[in-house]
Amino acid sequence: MAEQFIQPSPLIIGYTIVFLLVSIGIGFYASKYAKTAEQFFGGTKMFGGVTIGLASMAAVMSAFGFIGGPGLVYKFGMSSVWMTIACGPGMCYGYWILGKRMRGMADVTDVATLPDIARVRFNSQAVRGVLAIGLFLAAIAYLSSQVMGGGILMNQMLGVSKEWGIVIIFGTTVAYMFFSGMSGSILTDAFQGLVMLIAVFAVIIGFFMITGGDLTPIQNSAQFGPSFVDGFGSMPLQAALVFGLVFFVGAMGQPTMLAKMYSVKTPQDLKKAGIVGGVSYGVTSLVWILCGYGALYIVATGGAGPLQSADNAAFLFVSKLSGVTQALVMAGLLAAIVSTSSFFISLSSSAITRDLIGSFGHEIPHDKQIRYGQVLQVLVPLLAIGMGIWGGRMVAILGALGWGFFASVTLPTFAIGMLWKRCSTEGILSGLIFAVIANPAYLILENLKIFRFPFAGYLFCVAGAIIITVVVSLFTKTCAGENLPKALKPVFKL
Amino acid sequence: MITIDDKKRDVIMVIMALLWAFVLYAAWSGAVNKNPDLIFYGFIAIAFIVVCFYLMGAVTNEKMSYVVLIYPVIFNLVCWIIAFIIAYQTRGQKMDFIWGMHPGMFGAIIFFWLGSMISTALPLGLFFDKYFLPEGKWDEFQKEVSQLEKVN
Questions:
Q1: For residue range A23-44, what is the model confidence (pLDDT) as tens digits?
Q2: Do A420 and B9 make contact, defined as CB atoms within 8 angstroms?
Q3: ipTM, 2 decimals?
Q4: Shortest Cα distance from A284 to chain B (angstroms)?
Q5: CATH topology of domain A10-392
């Protein structure tokens, strides 16, 4: 990295070491909760609402939110902010719309993974298999995109090389995931969520100390101007349209959210989980907004020269804070990366161990699933690290997947499948196949400069998958309407 | 109470699919033909997509209370439309700030962000026991499930 804003200090190094050791400790402690495949892969029906709410927030708010988000604000003003201000309330909305039905499924069948629910709802191994492939691809994409961010962050925090930074971050995560799986991920995510919330308060104080709460200098700056502070930002107008929709409605399609809905111990915990998750995410959105606008203010008022890389906006802002505040914010950034990574390591390993293999009719015995899952929890991060470091253009393609990919495979399957009795197996299979093909296809076409949508391409994938699912369902009947599996009828009365 | 039975749900789902198609058209055609008004109508459409999901999900046994319909469903719709109108009308203009924010940013933050929070998190707390999961509903559900064979 050409621009170095943070110098490793004893305080930052100390915070980092304590953070990593506490995470490992919690992960080991959680191993006592991971005795069955359902507990190891799903943490099913095990945790209270506050833990689940904090864990949801921590898993959704990734390095992209804490580092990429401020960079986008620096580059485009308010445009990208629509993503984060849509997502927080979208999480509460998801609990309103889907929470009790997802939790209800855990009483109807043995749930450890999202494809488990899809298989039972649509009585189809094909749906389970295609969904597992979609989730695995998107999870690997997410993980790969965290690799370099993690390396750069550790480089800034500890002064180690990026390669060693990656080893430290992923080594720590695998160490506690190995024994406790998703149960460990949820408990450590809750702790890491708290660390992120502390970081937010440090950011708020820092922002008002630097800017005085007035963004007028950005509007008056010749370099930036009104489009950096207005409601839609300097990206084309349709960008905010796509972000507002896909990040609000799409929040309830994120596995980080959906999988938590059946992890709550009692259905009453859905209330606290929804409120804590949504509100705490809303609070952490302030990092995205304030770090970005703080950096813009600093450059607009001549406190620093224009950034060579927009991704350094968060680091520029943090560099202007005091030592303790810096350490708190950097620990929050680290928490954002580790919490997201742990969830996706668990998700991708379960997608293969339990769902993809199972969809071919070879169910691994439950007692052996954990062992295979542990092996995959080591292999998956290695694959992600390899792709993150040496993947080149493929990583650029995969990195752009993620949120939109998840939304396009899970919204039809769960938001439509669990809300609409008439949603049929043929409908969902058509929508899923479209999503799994269309997502990588549009990215490859864009990357090779053959074709480009005039908006974020995942809108096409999400909208297409939903429209296809609805239309095909209107003309087919398997597992739909009166053919709905009998055991599921009580769920549709919730 | 409004009854949203299977037939009405079919209609809502078709309307929602049409709204998604319109958003796609508005984003695409609006961008290609440089027609921001069309994109603005796309914004209005996404507010109605949110309403459709509310009508499908914020119900208990196919019933939705009028209270829930007014708040949060219509309340959220109104907040979003106000936010989009303010942000659209003021975009790119140099203006006096409100509370340290450009009026467009103010509209987005107060009406979209805060408005959405008030219409999602708050009602979840206020109405959980009355409309989301009324007392006895879960016991009734579990009793019904226990009478059926568990799916493996």
A1: 889 988 888 888 888 888 877 7
A2: yes
A3: 0.96
A4: 13
A5: Sodium/glucose cotransporter (1.20.1730)
